[in-house]
Amino acid sequence: MRKLLLIAIPMVVIACSKPNDSVSKPAATSAPATPSMTSTPAPAPATTGAQAVLGATAGNKAEGTLSIALESDGLRIRGDLSGLDPASEHGFHVHENGDCSAPDASSAGGHFNPQGKQHGKPGSDQHHAGDMFNIMADAQGLAKVDSLVTGVVLGGGGDIDVLGKAIVLHKKADDYMTQPSGDSGDRIACGVIR
To answer: Which of 20, 22, 105, 150 could bond to 187 as cystine, CB 3.0-4.6 Å?
Structure first.
């Protein structure tokens, strides 16, 4: 009998420790709402630096690496380009698409122009956000790039963000007047800002 009691007591304890569904439970506190999976994602944070590696288009030799850095008055683009004609001048622009896959870089689209302005000289009232000053090559066909682009940002995903856009180097100088691209000729190098 004693053995039966020793076995029965733990069974009663176990049975009594099971929760009773009929006992009222305290009301759950509501947790803060979480955004649904279909909500608009937050914009990407702006960045302070990027790079564009320019490769030659079909039949050309121009190439180089450019660094893009955020400064207080705009984006500074610096670097070296090679494979240019000696003592030549070239149009240089940010283009609307980050795609250099076409042999002639036509996949980069037109100049980056989120405000819908006319093409013009940088710093004037009418110019594309992607318009920059021409690049000059030396007697060996090398060019030192040091350009400032104002009115744009690097990252964040807004209308004036150039991250993911292309930088294009043209065969001829930009005249800053002819619409829509300054009569700067063929695209001889292209690289995406990453």
So the answer is: 105
131 catalytic residue (yes or no): yes
pTM value is 0.74
**33 is a domain residue:** no
* Structural domain of 84: 50-192
Judged against a pLDDT cut of 90, whether residue 89 lies above it is answered with yes
Q: What integer is the mean pLDDT of 114-129? A: 81
Q: What is the side-by-side order of every strand in the sheet holding 74-82?
A: 92-95, 166-170, 187-192, 49-56, 63-71, 74-82, 143-149
Residue 93 annotated among the catalytic residues of the structure? yes
Active-site residue (options: 119, 127, 161, 174): 119
Please name which of 58, 123, 52 lies closest in space to residue 81, comparing C-alpha atoms.
Answer: 52
Active-site option among 80, 85, 93, 175:
93
Q: How many helices (H) and strands (E) does the chain have?
A: 1, 9
Tokens 């759950």 label which residue?
28
Q: Is 90 a catalytic residue?
A: no
**Is residue 44 one of the residues assigned to a domain?**
no
Name the pLDDT band for 92 (thresholds 50, 70, 90).
very high
